[in-house]
Amino acid sequence: MSKQRKEGDIGPPAPEHRFERLYLAHYPAIAAYVTRRTESTDDIADVIAETFTTAWRRLDDVPQGDEARLWLYAVARRVLANHFRAEERRSALAARLREELATWSRPTADRDGDATYQAFRRLSPDDRELLTLVGWEGLSSAEIAKVLGCSRGAARLRLHRARKRLAKELAAADLDLATYGLRAVALAEGKS
Amino acid sequence: MNTDVDRVVAHLSPGAGPGMTEGARALMRDIMAAEPAPAMANASTRAAAPAGRRGRRSRVLRAAVPGVALLAAAFLGLSWLLPAGHGLGPGTAAALDIKKEDGYYVIEVKDLYADSATYEAQLRDAGLDVTLKVVPSTPALVGSVFPTSPTEGRYLDEIKTIDQPGGCDKMGGCPIGVKIPENFQGPAEITIGREAKPGEPFENGTSIDALGEPLHCLPYIGRTVAEVRGMLQERGVTVQSFTDMDPETGGTKESVPESWLVEGGNMTEPGKASLSVYEGSQPQEPGGRRGENCPTS
């Protein structure tokens, strides 16, 4: 057993060790969250850098386990909200990341002509935020409550209302969709 | 409707970006290099903090413990090699095996059912100001070790566990021993998870889909009570109680309509579970814990 002990021995969770774990475990989710909500790749790099710098500074406050991811979402959300008020700031930290992101070709979907997207855009930013936390990040209402810092009940209710409003918008957009569909058929048949 | 609407939104998702790149790794190193390491004095009291807030719902520490156990799994590689034969009463043999090795006390629990006083006496004789509690735990936490300081209210990094080499199928980890530095002043309170006897309520538990628990990796969140009841039945588990999540009318209930939706759950005693539920209009896209340990579909 003493040999095994040497092999399996794990040192104390030094801050560096813990941060590394945290970073490697949650970077992809947090980077995706930021990327989906930010247009400029420079901003993406900055927001990611600031989010994780905050986590490093406040490592003591970061909860353990999966809760850490929700905590990081909440930080990224605040950084995003503040970032647009200080766009001239460029983090010196994320130079390499910024370079990489600049060469990364973001898939460009032409969503402007998409009636669904338009219906979604007509919702309030609050509604969009709730719906995307579910649809893009896959969070449950309980998890959303943690990210937004509200009660579970409130998150559930707000989410329910947001879903209803989008459903209504989509229903209203059906006409547009149908028109678009007919036009497409007409084009395909060479009638227009 | 929920499912459809959520799917529509999901389809609108812009790209997630290039993921963990070299630049991302460089950023991690840069962040740590740019500023001194933060103090981590209270790293673990935070993990335990939600216990008080959620205590109302259940006496099982289910909300607090996932954090605790993940901490253990991630940073200490916890757990315990449970002796195959136990059941010796206190006093018939040493409850603990305590050895000094390389500047550490290496402790192994020989009798998991001894009372705290027996452990304490033995630890005191060895010169250690340590309280040991062996508590009935849900499967994921059987063998988990959690050392805290009763005076400073923090997780004790100084007390280390020794991980079993190889894979581990429990959230609380699979350790084979615990080490306390010889110069450790104490006091310390170490909680170790053991199996519960039939009918014995778990005192230490975690979410029902955690690694090692019955619904691990199964999408049960958002399903109806009837559906989840069936999933549990297939695994030999019956639903003992419900926690109605409604902030006003909620609380523990013996029964709720089968059409209600499930938001969470935990094992209460061997073969029995409690589900957190709410009155939802229609089932949501079934979800579950998205963990590193679940196969990706």
UniProtKB/TrEMBL annotation, chain B:
Composition skew (Basic and acidic residues), residue ranges: 287-297
Keywords: Membrane, Transmembrane, Transmembrane helix
Residues that span the membrane, as ranges: 63-82
Residue segments, region Disordered: 243-297
Taxonomy, superkingdom: Bacteria
Protein name as it appears in the record: PASTA domain-containing protein
Organism encoding this protein: Nonomuraea rhodomycinica
